[in-house]
Amino acid sequence: MAVNKCVKYSLFFFNLLFWLSGCIILGVGIYLKVSNAKISVIQDSLPSFELMIAIGVIIMVLGFLGCCGAYRENRCMLLLFFIFLLIIFTLLLAAGILGAVGDNTVKTWVKTKLEELSPISSQPQNVVDDVEKLQRELKCCGLLKGPADWTKIPDSCRCNVTADNTAECKPGTAFGTSNNIYQTACYDKAIEFIKSHMEVAVGIAFAIAALLVFGMAFSMVLYCQISKSPGATTA
Fold it and tell me: Which of 16-20, 70-74, 83-87, 170-174 has the lowest mean pLDDT?
């Protein structure tokens, strides 16, 4: 039985696309890792984006393996490619399920971490500096209770009504300052930040899962055709 050239080159171009997807995942993982630095004060509570970077590298390697296996009609490489795709698909499926049902878990992690930093005034200066950096980046004030978390409102809580959201930027005379200050606690802002980035990651994961199903189907079809063709080899 001759190998179907359409299947062969479809798998080849799929793996080229798969390799490019790995490049995208690697790039997004690096971007999220860098972006995560802006909320370093709660960084220990967030998922490790090194895993996404590692997955991107693995997918790039698998894409290369699949390209070679399809082009050379190598059964061993195609079988390894199929097995690795199945493993990654299973892991992505498990991660997607955990991400869908683990929303409250993430909130609990963040809240617990921020509670450890309360009261802010009793923390070392380097921790206070990190909290102020967090407030500037996320445009918030206080960790859990808002401005009430501070005994003296720092400059990082101050805002400009004309430049910022007027619903969040209000006069702070009740807190011992006549300046406008952010009213939203950093906990709420941190959760919004995490959700916005996780939505990107989950969207990419589902797109990759669809490609994985396509790749597994074509690799197995090509593997079976090569097995039935005359002079089939594994190397």
Answer: 170-174
Q: CA nearest 196: which of 42, 26, 32, 29?
A: 32
Pairing between β-strand 169-171 and β-strand 180-182 as defined by DSSP bridges: antiparallel
Of the CA atoms within 13 Å of residue 126, those in its CB half-sphere come to 1
Query: Nearest to residue 160, comparing CAs of 179, 141, 188?
Result: 179
| pTM across the whole model | 0.53
**How wide is the angle at C-alpha 2 spanned by C-alphas 210 and 85, nearest 5°?**
25
**What is the tens place of the pLDDT at every residue in 108-128?**
777 887 777 777 877 888 888
What pLDDT sits at residue 138? 83
Q: Which residue has the higher pLDDT, 40 or 16?
A: 16
Q: What is the dihedral of CA 78, 63, 100, 186, to 10 degrees?
A: 160
- CA 87 – CA 98 distance, rounded (Å): 17
Contact between 190 and 37 under an 8 Å Cβ cutoff? The reply is: no
Backbone angles phi, psi at 115, to 5 degrees: -65, -30
- At 45, the pLDDT band (50, 70, 90 cuts) reads very low
Task: Read off φ and ψ for residue 119, nearest 5 degrees.
Answer: -75, 145
Count CB-CB contacts under 10 A for residue 2: 8
Domain definitions of the chain by residue range? 5-103+194-228, 108-187
Residues in a beta bridge with 180:
171
